[in-house]
Amino acid sequence: MDHRPVITLLEESDCWLTECRLAPSADIAVSVVVPNFCGGETLLRALHSVLTQSLREIELIVIDDASIDNSWDLLTDLLPRDERVRVVRHKTNRGKPVAMNRAIALARGQWLAVLDADDWYHTDRLRALVEQGEQTGADMVADNQFLYDASAGKVVSTAWPESSALWPLSLDDYLAGSNAYDTFNLGMLKPLLRTDFIRRTGLGYEEKARHGQDFFHLLQFYLAGGKAVVSDRALYFYTQPFGRLSRKWSHRTRKRYDFQNAYEINQRYLEIAKRALPQGQWKRLRTRNDRLRLLELYYRTRESIGRGDWLEAFRSIARHPAMLIYLLRRLLGRMRQNPGYYNTIRRIARRSARRMAEGARNA
Predict the structure, then answer these.
(1) Rounded-to-integer distance, Cα 96 and Cα 196, Å
(2) Distance, C-alpha 268 to centroid of its chain
(3) Where is 269: in which H helix or E strand?
(4) Residue 1 has what pLDDT?
(5) Which of 38, 50, 80, 215 fits 187 for a cystine, CB–CB 3.0-4.6 Å?
(6) In whole angstroms, how far apart are CA 177 and each of 3, 23, 52?
(7) What is the rounded distance in angstroms from the CA atom of residue 200 to the CA atom of residue 225?
């Protein structure tokens, strides 16, 4: 006889959801949000990595974005097994930003963490990051990442060199380390944020963003005056959309980045930031915008070549010769043992850690 509890789904206008089964008095350290769309192949790995954390005082909120694979069956089977799990199922596909904003409204933890359905956590990740966040008084704490090539089935590197250092990440360094040309940049961090900071500042996700949502979310964080620290220890396993070793997409639903969409949203932030940021930081954000625009033109040119429309491709290159410089940069990056972003973030990390140590000595 199956003695597992029966879970009731509540219906709202655009979704079904379960109630939180943890007691109102429960001390929840972290709310972990897993947005999912057709991630059935990797979803259980992600969820298992959360539920087996050394920090047990957590809740797990899974937002299923109208998946058409077996994701919902997996979730309904898991639900009765652990009272820390709560699920929401969208009636129509809404996108990751909508899913994240809904989860923020539901979260009861002191900290909020995100985990993409094709990624997973090291067992001690949440405990380590919560301790570092509390020790430093930061509003956000993030970590280094293992870069995983799913098609090759192996971790290819860390995002930057590992160490035991913990260092502050300023907005200036965040923008410097968020180069749109890089296959990994600081806009791809997967941090823990204090839930009360999120609620107090109205921090949310850009619902019109189809890609790059994390960059804009963290940019909002800094514009709201947030204080951030980063650990050099890698505790997050990030599945590369396009594997560095295999040169293959990690999932059949993966598509190329919509640089045009990111450019248009970044353009709006440029107008907002003009009144809020020093000139140097604003120029860094504008440089990112210029690169997003060039990347969209580069991929459109590649698509023209793929269709055999060489005339259009040559016209595009003639109008935007900087594409050739970007192509050369990509070719050189493949030849290097360590890609350019590796060195950029390492330089930021070393400088910031040194400043932090000097500040501690002078305190």
Answers:
(1) 22
(2) 21
(3) helix 259-274
(4) 44
(5) 215
(6) 52, 42, 32
(7) 11
Q: Exposed, middle or buried by CB within 10 Å (0-12, 13-18, 19+), for 53?
A: buried
Strands (E) in 188-297, as ranges, are 192-194, 228-239
Distance CA 282, CA 188 (A): 20
Strand partners, 140: 193, 228
pLDDT tens digits, residue range 274-316?
888 899 999 999 999 999 999 999 989 989 998 999 999 899 9
* 271: exposed, middle or buried (Cβ count in 10 Å: 0-12, 13-18, 19+): exposed
Supply 149's token pair.
């090539």
Q: Residue type at 358?
A: E
Answer positive or negative: Cα dihedral of 294, 295, 299, 302.
positive
Q: How many other C-beta atoms are found inside a 10 Å radius of the C-beta of residue 135?
A: 11
63 phi, psi to nearest 5 deg: -105, 105
The pTM score is 0.91
Q: Read off the DSSP letter of residue 188.
A: G
Predicted confidence at residue 258, as pLDDT, reads: 86
Task: Report pLDDT for 242.
Answer: 75
Do 64 and 36 contact (CB within 8 A), yes or no?
yes
The predicted structure's pLDDT at residue 208? 86
DSSP strand pairing (140-149 vs 154-158) = antiparallel
Tell me the C-alpha distance between 152 and 310, whole Å: 33
- The neighbouring-strand residues paired with 61 are 33, 86
- Look-up of token digits 């923008």: 175
In the structure encoding, which two tokens stand for residue 39, read together?
């991630």
The CA distance from 357 to 353, in Å, is 6
Q: Which residues of the chain have pLDDT under 50?
A: 1
